[in-house]
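Write out the 3D structure for:
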Amino acid sequence: MTDRKVFWAAIATILVLGWQIARVQAIYSGDASGLFRTGAHMPVPPNLIPITHLDSSPGGYDGQFYRFLAHDPLLRNGTARYFDSPLLRTRRILVPLLAWLIAAGQPQLIDRAYVLVILGFIFVGVYWLCGLMLLEGRHAANGLLFLAIPATVVSIDRMTIDVALGALTAGLLWQVARGRERWLWPTLAAGVLVRETGLLLVAACALAALYRREFKKALLWLSAAIPVLCWYGYWQVVLRRAAVDTARVIPRWVLPSFRLGILIRALNPSRYPLPHQSEVIAQGLDSLALVGMMAIAVMAVWLLRYTPDLTWKLALGLHVAFLLDMSGPKFWNSPYGYARPFAPLFVLVLAASARRGKWALASAAGFTLLIDLRLSTEIYSQVLGVIHWALGRPA
């Protein structure tokens, strides 16, 4: 069993590594900082200007801020002023901190170390999902579905941190399924340090323990939030002025407005400055992606009935409730944005559907691929660029 898990996890990691190397060479002229999509019109910390590849897009993407944080994880060099939202970015410390530690703080090594951290989480994510598939009598290769999770796709493409929480969710389920809790506390603590939505996993474990009247365990699982609270306290001191701005601690789109935003956006997709036919295709793919998200949510509710473990049930239920809370239509504008916070939900649905049989697993995979289909339109030009580079032709 172990050999098969390692084999498929290694295959996945090698494939992603090969793709990243090809992208760096073909698209970014050998500069790994290009993977982080630093916007051409975005301010960059002075010490990073000489080693930063600027993206053609004016605003870049979120990965750029986590890269900045990886170069200054303790926020001692004023880097936070270059974040779009200091309170939001700095609390998601685990991936940037690991990159800094692996590189021993050496600026010239941090970008590559960050890529290695992402690859590491891909390895363990596939490894644990392979294990879950084997426990349910499925082929270990089904663990490669971890690569299809939208958060994984986006993390590979734009160096966002969400793949880490997806991998840790698979690790948590693996431990729960095998009744091994030795590493459960570190897994929960790491999940919350990746991003604040990891608290949903902490809540699921604590509530399950409370239901079983295991009060000491409930307190133990709740204490997994202590490391992140200590980190929050640290940056509250470091970012005194920013910390006062509580309106930016919780984004507006998190607050429920009692509207079916996902359905509204599916029926009225975003407009694009494209020729009519191209815009219709883009809007159709947007709607299909949103249908995929709704189908995943419905499937999660259906799976509640067939999931015997209470921790799994609570984790599924809490993440569906989280999805329903995202009621503003603007949240659902792009799958690059809305699919990332739900990495744990996709892992939960894929793992739980394996228990229901091949058709359930195939359905979960199909709904996931509907979202990936839309994501592929953003990656298409990169694929062409890599092919031209491989063939020795000008891009």
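Confidence is low (pLDDT under 50) at residues 242-247.
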